Amino acid sequence: MTIKTKEKAVATLPLNEILAGDCIDVMNALPEASVDLIFADPPYNLQLKGDLHRPNNSKVDAVDNAWDQFDSFKAYDAFTKAWLAAAKRLLKPGGAIWVIGSYHNIFRVGAELQTQGYWILNDVVWRKSNPMPNFRGKRFTNAHETMIWASKDEGSKYTFNYEALKELNEGIQMRSDWVLPICNGGERLKDDKGDKAHPTQKPESLLHRVLVGSTNAGDVVLDPFFGTGTTGAVAKALGREFIGIEREEAYRKVAAKRISRVRKFDKTAIAVTTPKRAEPRVPFGQLVERGLLRPGEMLTSPRGHLAKVRADGTLIADDVKGSIHKVGAELEGAPSCNGWTYWNFKRDGKNVSIDVLRQQIRAEMSE
Amino acid sequence: MTIKTKEKAVATLPLNEILAGDCIDVMNALPEASVDLIFADPPYNLQLKGDLHRPNNSKVDAVDNAWDQFDSFKAYDAFTKAWLAAAKRLLKPGGAIWVIGSYHNIFRVGAELQTQGYWILNDVVWRKSNPMPNFRGKRFTNAHETMIWASKDEGSKYTFNYEALKELNEGIQMRSDWVLPICNGGERLKDDKGDKAHPTQKPESLLHRVLVGSTNAGDVVLDPFFGTGTTGAVAKALGREFIGIEREEAYRKVAAKRISRVRKFDKTAIAVTTPKRAEPRVPFGQLVERGLLRPGEMLTSPRGHLAKVRADGTLIADDVKGSIHKVGAELEGAPSCNGWTYWNFKRDGKNVSIDVLRQQIRAEMSE
DNA sequence: CCACACAATGAATCCATCA
DNA sequence: ATGATGGATTCATTGTGTG
To answer: Which EC number(s) are documented for this chain (chains A, B) (predicted)?
Structure first.
């Protein structure tokens, strides 16, 4: 029964479609635990009083659309609570969510995320390289937006392609502040009159980093505030499945047209750098079994400790016995030790890391 | 009567002192509407579980102080609500508040600020130039903290020294993201044993920018979580009056000694040395993220080698994978290789160096 | 005295898998 | 579920020691 329900659920999950309607209703109609990642760019609750003018009196095209007006924090909180709860139900156990916002709404969103039991992994700042200046000189240039990245629950798994992100950043660990330009130029979608099709279109570079970093190829990515479909466009190019939800028909049309033109990157291009952890585990005992090391042979540590290899793949040094890791840790008085990189053996008079032997076995395994 | 009360209040306002006690009690005992600016660095409620070790096995000195321990979000929220209410009462009508925090607490603080009727003017991101890395490679480097700047009420006046901040920023409007180093070196206060006197001492550069931007000489600045007195030290140097509140005697002692040694800047000395800007580092991955190169696109070397661009900004050529530099070096059998000048892409049938694209990004960044 | 190597450390919600 | 164990993981800056 359970299995049947699940099968049916998966079968009816509408992939790579833009669903019409209110995102809360639509999410509640989708099967639970069916989505790997949610990226959400909810309305910002901008409370603009009157129009804003540039120094030359040209009017700024402010975000004042009807869908962005809420009469109070209370109404906004109720809305936030409802869509976040619906989103949590949809997430698989190892799923995660990203929400982007500004100071107008992000504090309320973040507090509600925590209250609902989502577990914040990072807040990430999108630092805009070309923001709109503060024309009146009354505040700081509003030059960033904030994203919150959270797993479904405390302690739950999540996808994080650490090595791929490190490569994207040319060998240095990716930080929580991302410097990326705003969406303009050819990427910015226009309507029939040549005006911008959506007031807050996000750059594809932002979604590229989010999806490369926190999804794998084939994952299902849901965007409940789809707009003109940046999430869908990048997901398609990267070989992820998407589900979009959008209330406004005009946006749905623009998004559908946009995504239809996107070409998938080829498979080897989508493949990213993988972690060492993904390589097959080789027990140290295999080196002994295969004769790469002989029982009785002595290993040396960087600081001159000696240990004898035993037939069962353990080491013995003075009065310490155990695995290569345990013996290394005890000799160093350290909380842990990677025995593979710690111990050396002698070949032709030279010290060689035992990790070389592990590499050798792994190479044989992959043949 | 009202006037007399006010006069008495001002007369008894303890200036340039560090008051002992719980900040909520102490604030409630101070006269209302008597303070121009509040800078607050409340406990972050970090909720750290076990120990964390660096890859070299040394233990990270975590913030495990009793003052950062709360039983639940509910308890933290009650604390936040109480101190923010006490702070609001103290602010003059034209006063403002700054609160600094991390993702652990800042969303709850920001939401409560809004709920109490404070009016958020900006959120400002302190981007740390030298943050502690993420040692286990499980998340993004936590490389920033968030500050919220809010006036006492919607529509109320506030101080903003636009021109002074513009000068601080080499003639360009100050943005909402500030790149500043963490507090270490000679500025970091030590106790008798040579350990850090306070686990979370803030850099004076941060307070300098806050006080120059949002107070005038002679203004009263209150810091309810005074710690080792960075706010007081910078306020004194800039000719502002300060009031500090601190519960821990050890911190009060260190702060008092520190501030006693501070000399006021003379007016001409406040001219600030601007740090020289190095050419920004552009990771190759940004060309991919920003669509200047497509995953799957082929690059060529001077000697005709081909390599395919991957989604994470690495290249793949035959069986060689890695950064533009590494792949170039391996193909040439060289110890190193500058991939930026080595690789070319095709545009309009002609070979163009990828370094042209880096120049393009640098030009955008400096705009 | 200078150059260079090496060690120390900072607001951190920091593992995965198997028995 | 829980515990034991294998073994993977860091950047910028400052201070100290050595040649």
So the answer is: 2.1.1.72
Specify whether the CB–CB gap between B245 and B222 falls below 8 A: yes
**Coarse DSSP helix, strand, coil percentages of chain A, rounded to the nearest 5 percent:** 35, 20, 45
B141: left (phi over 0), alpha (psi -120 to 50) or beta: beta
Spacing of A166 CA from D11 C1' in Å: 13
> Do A127 and B125 make contact, defined as CB atoms within 8 angstroms?
yes
Q: Which tokens is A18 given?
A: 């833009």
Q: Which residues of B31-42 are buried (b: 16+ CB within 10 A; e: fewer)?
A: beebbbbbbbbb
The whole-model pTM stands at: 0.93
pLDDT digits (tens, 9 = 90+) for B234-286: 999 999 999 999 999 999 999 999 999 999 886 555 544 444 456 788 999 99
Which of B250, B220, B244 is closest to B231 using CA atoms?
B244
Smallest CA–CA distance from B159 into chain A, residue:
A138
State mean pLDDT over A263-267.
97
Lookup: tokens for A202: 């996000």
CA distance A271 to B316: 10
Q: How long is the CA A178 to C1' C14 vector, in angstroms?
A: 20
Chains A & B: contacts with CB separation below 8 Å: 217
Residue with tokens 């910015």: A188
Closest nucleotide (CA of B60 to C1')? C9
Q: In A, residues 188-227, which contact B (CB 8 Å cutoff)?
A: 203-205, 208-209, 212
Q: To the nearest whole angstrom, how far is the Cα of A20 from the nearest Cα of chain B? A: 29
With H, G, I as helix, E, B as strand and everything else as coil, classify residue B129: coil
Is the torsion defined by CA of B196, B202, B203, B207 positive or negative?
negative
Q: How far is B76 from chain A (nearest CA, A)?
A: 12
Query: Token digits for A355?
Result: 């990790």
